[in-house]
Amino acid sequence: MQSVRSILVLFLATATAGFLAPDPTGKYNVTLTTGTLVDYSRNDAYAALPTPRALMLSVFQPATCASIVSVPYMPDKTAEYQGPFIQQSFNISADLTPLFLEARLPVCSDHPGSCSPLENRPILLFSPGYSTPRLYYSVIASAIASEGFVVITIDHPEDANIIVYPDGHVVYNNASILDSPTWNDWDRAADASFIVDQLSNATAMAALLPGRGRRAFATDRVAMLGHSAGGVAAILAASQDRRIRAAANWDGTIIGSPALPQISQPVLFFTHDPTTDASWLAAWPQLTGPKIVLRVANTTHQSFSDVPSLIVAAGLSTAPFADVVGAIVPARMVRLLTAYTTAWMDGAFKGREAGPLLQGKEPGRFPEVSVLTKENF
Ligand SMILES: *[C@@H]1O[C@H](CO)[C@@H](O)[C@H](O)[C@H]1NC(C)=O
Ligand SMILES: *[C@@H]1O[C@H](CO)[C@@H](O)[C@H](O)[C@H]1NC(C)=O
Ligand SMILES: *[C@@H]1O[C@H](CO)[C@@H](O)[C@H](O)[C@H]1NC(C)=O
Ligand SMILES: *[C@@H]1O[C@H](CO)[C@@H](O)[C@H](O)[C@H]1NC(C)=O
Ligand SMILES: CC(=O)N[C@H]1CO[C@H](CO)[C@@H](O)[C@@H]1O
Predict the structure, then answer these.
(1) How much is the pTM?
(2) Which residues form the signal peptide (predicted)?
């Protein structure tokens, strides 16, 4: 791993000015607003003291903007925590702290008058992997938002390994979540339902999105997706809340036995693996709507986050990290995740199951994607 060490030394020497994460790939610009929604009706099951569940959110809205600014990709406190955490978790010789400290995200300037978010767009909730902050999915969320969707990424308290709130206080992961046979996934699903409730609460939306005014969002086109445990949470949320009209699970094994009820909403699965996840096969009969399992060649479980995109944006190669992040070109991964996920959600909202891409009518567009199983459409 000498190569990684020398790359990082070079990186540290050159990256002090910061680097810009990739622009959103779609037809619109994207605004970013971060803030908190607090559910006073539910305490955190894993907080040491009774604490109402406080969800830290990033809201990405498609927009037309006069200018773009760059904002920190994550707070310094988060970056300084993530570097050593990832180094240890994946046993790599590189400490990625500088990568996270120097990364910046291109978003619309929120200067009044220079930016108009689009109205009446469908809304996608995004739930991260176990212990993973929502901030690791901002590039992907921007790409999806730039196709005309409002995307809301969620930090689930006591689950994300670190959450920094606007007032500066920090909440860390409580590993006893893993002692529960269903992890935190039902709490995550309840978080999603709470957010849908709040979307139709004009007061709550005015506090979360001050520039938007005192207006509720329509909740007739809401769906949920997520990575890993977040993908499982999306399915559970759809099972308990009919307002969530479709789900997408990016590489999330259903751990434990969450007693899945029948689910009629469309469910899309992405896997890095050449075989279909055994836990998905077990859940398959419960899914009575359109369902599909797609495999992406040359990926790993960690390909479904921004980390590979950041490595490339910093001018580095993902090759030394291929064991961890996969060999697929990160920009390609973002494009295909965006294309299939938005096609799936669009299909669900329009009442037909899928557009041409998912019906296999665009062969050659993404040859690295193969259909492992498909039913009911
Ligand atoms: C973790 O969760 C357990 C179970 O709810 C709780 O008893 C404990 O106090 C929590 N630990 C911390 C550090 O918050
Ligand atoms: C971590 O990586 C080093 C160097 O590649 C290796 O020697 C060691 O066995 C690894 N440790 C674990 C726990 O995998
Ligand atoms: C709407 O949001 C406000 C501010 O968060 C809150 O005080 C109020 O109770 C909410 N109303 C409903 C019906 O949930
Ligand atoms: C996977 O990566 C290898 C090596 O880079 C490449 O030759 C191959 O074409 C890729 N497979 C697909 C399906 O893209
Ligand atoms: C579609 C759109 O609004 N594109 C704009 C995004 O922002 C850049 C920089 O301000 C503009 O040049 C684009 O026209």
Answers:
(1) 0.95
(2) 1-17
